[in-house]
Write a structure and sequence with these properties.
Number of strands: 4
Structural class: alpha/beta
Largest sheet: 2 strands, parallel
Radius of gyration: 15 Å
Number of helices: 5
Strand order of the largest sheet: 1-3
Order of helices and strands: HHHHHEEEE
């Protein structure tokens, strides 16, 4: 969730014509991440489409315990909300986003995502019986899709 908010916020909030609500929400999230956890997000800001940079940030944030910081999570939700309201084109769709889940078995079937997006995004997921993922469709239009 936090990485998706950083990507969407950087893509929308750092544009010259960005709405102040998006810019303010993104800068608030960024400042919380930097000040509380010492994590820089500059690489993702420069390359918002880079899966490698997003994954690297996801790992650094997890190591820093950012996913357990309620204020950061709240700020991330505000960024996503602001981007959806003011710059829907920058919002990255995620069909299924599971974070910090502990389950016997996870079964994800028939997920369809339109636009730039990810079919399934799992982070810190533990199962005893496994994970079954089938029938993921991402229609990215003219944009590259990341199922």
């Amino acid at each position: 969730m936090v990485v998706a908010a950083v990507v969407a916020g950087a893509a929308a909030g750092l544009k010259e014509q960005a709405q102040s609500a998006v810019r303010d929400a993104y800068l608030g999230l960024k400042n919380l991440i930097v000040q509380r956890h010492g994590v820089e997000v500059g690489a993702v800001e420069r390359e918002t489409d880079s899966e490698a940079e997003q994954e690297s940030l996801r790992e650094v944030l997890a190591d820093a315990g950012v996913g357990e910081d309620a204020e950061v999570l709240g700020a991330a939700h505000e960024v996503v909300k602001a981007v959806r309201e003011h710059d829907a084109a920058a919002a990255r769709a995620v069909g299924v986003d599971l974070n910090d889940v502990d389950a016997e078995l996870i079964r994800i079937v028939n997920v369809k995502v339109r636009g730039v997006g990810t079919g399934v995004d799992l982070n810190h997921v533990r199962t005893r019986g496994g994970i079954v993922i089938e029938g993921i469709q991402v229609d990215g239009g003219n944009s590259p899709a990341h199922p």
